[in-house]
Description:
alpha/beta; eight-stranded parallel barrel
Amino acid sequence: MLRPRIIPCLLVHKGGLVKTVGFDQPKYVGDPLNAVRIFNEKEVDELVVLDIDATREGREPDYKLIASLAAECRMPLAYGGGVKSVEQFERLVSLGVEKVSIGAAAALTPDLIAEAASRVGSQSVVVVIDVKLHKSQYQAWTHNGTRMVSSGPVELARLAQAKGAGEIVLNDMDRDGRMQGYNLDLLRQMRAAVSLPITCLGGAGSLADMAGLIREFGVIGAAAGSLFVFKGKYRAVLINYPSRADKDALVAAARSSA
């Protein structure tokens, strides 16, 4: 039976692990490999690693780092950042990456979605849609939130689905790092528009936020960054994740009250 997934999202900046607020103010929180080892011990459902420099700097993924992360990782690994060709998809999958995420490339060259799906399978093709409000309208952005896309997020999601993507990651930039809850209104719009699996990112401040997400949307990816790398009101760096028992209880409680 399909289950909701609770997913830590790690941001890589200049080779280190960071956490941002509103896609800005990167705070160093540790070494990516060390974080993967800790999450291994905590038996996480899935791990997302995003290189927030690669696309903006116009460079390829850091294959050496990714190979090290994939070799260490004992859970499904998703990677995004700097991917813009089918050959890069194939290389990343050959290194052990289960899902390859694209944002700018999906918006600028949507045929890449179909080409990649035909080569590595739809299940390995994830389209990330970074969204923030602009003049009271939700707009999609690329290049780490510096370039606005002409298509709106819902339109972009429909195109991704038509081209053969296997999953959408919906990332609310305005809520990034603020830990004030997910944007359920935006997610309702996306859920009504596409039937693809969706992972929601941006704003999770507690496991209760995740429970509410699962309660309303059922089988969904509940992703977070700050929640799993900070602890307490002073945001001390502490990598954490719910135990298997706590996670099962969270999902069971969400389902029973749905």
